[in-house]
Amino acid sequence: CVTSDVQAACRGTTVTQELLKEGFHRDLLVKVELGEDAGGCTVAARIRLPPGIYVDPYELATLQQQNLTKAVLIPDVTDVEAPEYLATALVLVLYLEEDPRCSCCFHAAVPVHVRYHRPAEGSHQALVVLESPEALLCCCHSHLAAECWEPAEVGAPCSAESVGPCQWHSTTHGPAREELMLEVPVGLREHSSLVCALTLLTTLLCASLILAATCRHGHFS
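C-alpha cells predicted for Phosphatidylinositol-glycan biosynthesis class X protein:
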C-alpha cells in the first residue's frame, strides 16, 4: 500500500521521441510531459546516442548561436566522418522549451545524422536502437519530493548559457521506456568484389582522362 501511495503521489512523467524526415539526416523530436507543474525548474532530456547516430558539434554550435537549439554534447568533440563500427556512443543533454498551451509539457528538436554501416550478409538493412531519453529537472529555487525524484549523475550546466554544473534530478517512478528502431540501408557483403572492381576501373578511367586533358591543354616550360 505504501508503494501504491507513493506512485499515486508521484504521477508518471511521460517521455516520447520521434524521428522526423527521411534518409540519413533526421530531426529527433523529444517531448516530456511531467506529472506536475515544474514552475521555476529547467527541464532537459538526457539522450544516449549509439555509435550509429551522431550530432554534428559544428552544426549544433551554429544552431545555438541562432538560438534555435540548446544542448550540451558529451564529449563535445566527435569524428563526423567515422563509420558506425569505428565510432563511439555519445550523450546529449537537450534543454526543452515549455509548451505555451500546457504548463507540464516540454519539447525540443535536434538534427541527428546516421553513420554508414558495414556491409551485411544477406540483408539490406541494419538496425540502430535509440533508447528512450531520460527526463531531468534542475530546480534552483524549489524542492523536489525525495520519493519522486533522485539525484542524477549528469555533468552538464543548468542551462546552455551557464558554465558550471548543477544538481540534476531524474524521476524514480515512470512508465517503461520504449526504444526507437531505425533501419539503415547497407550494402551486401557478397557484392564487395564487384564494388571494388568497379571503383578501381572508375578511378583509373578518371585519372586517364585527367592526364590526357593535362597533356593536351597544359602549358609546360
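The radius of gyration is 24 Å.
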